[in-house]
Amino acid sequence: MNDKNFDLDSKYIGIVPVINHFLGRLRFKALLEKYLPPAAFQSRMDPAAALSVLLLNLIINRTPLYSVGEWAEQIVPKLLGLTASQTGLINDDRVGRALDRLFEADRSAMLTELVVGMIEEFGIELDKFHDDSTTLTLHGDYFKADGHIERGKKTLVAAIGHNKDHRQDLKQLLWILTVSEDGAVHFKVTDGNVQDITTHIDTWEVLRRLAGSPKFLYIADSKLCSRVSLNHIHQSGGDFITVLPRSRKEDGLFKKWLLTHSPRWQEIAHYPHPRLKDGPRILPGPWNLLSPMLMGTG
Description:
Elements: H1 16-25, H2 28-35, H3 47-60, H4 68-72, H5 92-104, H6 107-122, E1 128-137, E2 149-150, E3 153-154, E4 172-180, E5 183-190, H7 200-211, E6 217-219, H8 227-235, E7 239-243, H9 249-258, E8 271-272, E9 281-282, E10 293-296
Parallel strand pairs: 1-6, 6-7
Antiparallel strand pairs: 1-4, 2-3, 4-5, 7-10, 8-9
Helix pairs in contact: 2-3, 2-6, 3-5
């Protein structure tokens, strides 16, 4: 038996190969290399490599930026696309400089190419889209997040708005996400004081370009229910489903009409009861509560 001392170097593998498989099919790193401005000549690490490590961290662990380097040193270097000597180069300054490069890139074109490639690679269905938004609550003053022009690009405004975390004392940004039945296809971050009701036309137009046609079903909450947005979708030949707010006069007229009429209900969907294997079936969503739904077709 060899009595010499030895060092035990333990590395994490976990789910990283699975994530790498899908990122490879999405050509994520290749897109970064295509769209990021060239790194400085003296740079010891490609910004695309640093951002790839950051993405893996966000998916798996979501550590603070200052500890991404410590996290990376626990992973098998090859799985991060790095050599053993490069893992020690990951720190918050280097990742921050890589994020600066991303800010300078044509992110809109990059994300469009990423989403189009995802749709083709995974066969994402484009017949139904569900759009919703939430707020990204910020802790701090963020004095420089005022919409000024930085390196030729407009920055976002961190502002007080209708906070969905019920923190009216904190500034925020608005995050808008659109998903199909089997994957996310569009997202956008806007100023914190932007009203949801004003975002749907722009989102719908992006989806029309992705789908190549207006003939898809656009589903959103009551913020979609404005004359301007609904007219735009209808006149463009699109279909929609939204929730009719109780403040609208149509809600009161419909309930009054129900007192003296028997409507011809049309079943929209049929789903098994989640707890009763052979029990009664229910319809998901707000129509279970007899909340009026508004549907339109172009």
